[in-house]
Write a structure and sequence with these properties.
This protein is an alpha/beta fold. The model has no long low-confidence stretch (mean pLDDT 94).
Length: 235
């Protein structure tokens, strides 16, 4: 395997599957099966999931929600998704634990680095929820922070598209895909793969990112083996 310990960032929107809101059990099980396969191959997996399938703080703020409260609601949405993924993994006999950035026993244990690393080393999947625990930060920043803290070899950003393009491939048919790109080039081209805070943290701490299509079954293992799918972002 190319990577020993990874931080897998999943989008909340992807969990909706075809239904337009909430959690699609089929998509959830697809994800859990791919994660189970990774764990069986000896990879240590930390996971951060967004909450956009349930509530987005930023879009809530644009509709009159206070941003502070909106972001807190978004953080709770990531906990709901984390519990769903934990449940799906446990049903497949994969050990998984939810650590939360906000104290909420008995829903999840309060996050700290030694606890997370120990669980990873014991072969447990560690689901890191509630973002950074602070408003005004996205789950992308939460995943950068946790990826750096748990000393992951790479952040794997699972999305609906198969990498980073010169423009949005869903809108621009002439967009071309990068196999590899630097953090500086992403910034200079104004590409929106993650928010600036998240990208800067990865750049400053030398945490490479692979952006790939998680919704195609089998792709996670291909990335872990070092196959050239998706886009590698590095210094």
């Amino acid at each position: 395997m190319k990577y020993n310990r990874v931080l897998l960032k999943l989008s909340g929107e992807s969990l909706m599957g075809e239904q337009g809101y909430g959690i699609d059990p089929d998509r959830l099980n697809d994800y859990a099966e791919q994660i189970k396969e990774a764990v069986a191959m000896g990879v240590q997996v930390g996971i951060v999931i967004g909450g956009g399938n349930i509530f987005r703080g930023l879009s809530g703020a644009s509709k009159g929600f206070d941003r502070y409260k909106g972001d807190q609601m978004g953080m709770l949405a990531t906990v709901i998704n984390g519990l769903a993924l934990q449940s799906a993994l446990q049903a497949m006999e994969v050990k998984a634990r939810v650590l939360t950035a906000i104290r909420m026993n008995p829903v999840g244990e309060y996050y700290d680095k030694p606890k997370a690393v120990e669980a990873l080393e014991n072969g447990e999947v560690v689901i890191l929820s509630a973002g950074t625990g602070n408003p005004y930060f996205t789950t992308d920043t939460g995943s950068s922070l946790r990826g750096i803290e748990i000393e992951a070899d790479v952040m794997l950003k699972g999305t609906r598209v198969d990498g980073i393009y010169t423009a949005d491939p869903e809108k621009d048919p002439t967009a071309t895909k990068f196999d590899e790109i630097t953090f500086d080039e992403i910034y200079n081209r104004g590409l929106k793969i993650m928010d600036l805070t998240a990208t800067t943290m990865c750049k400053e701490n030398n945490l490479d990112i692979v952006v790939f299509d998680m919704d195609t079954k089998g792709n996670l293992i291909k990335v872990l083996k070092g196959e050239n799918i998706g886009t590698l972002v590095k210094n």
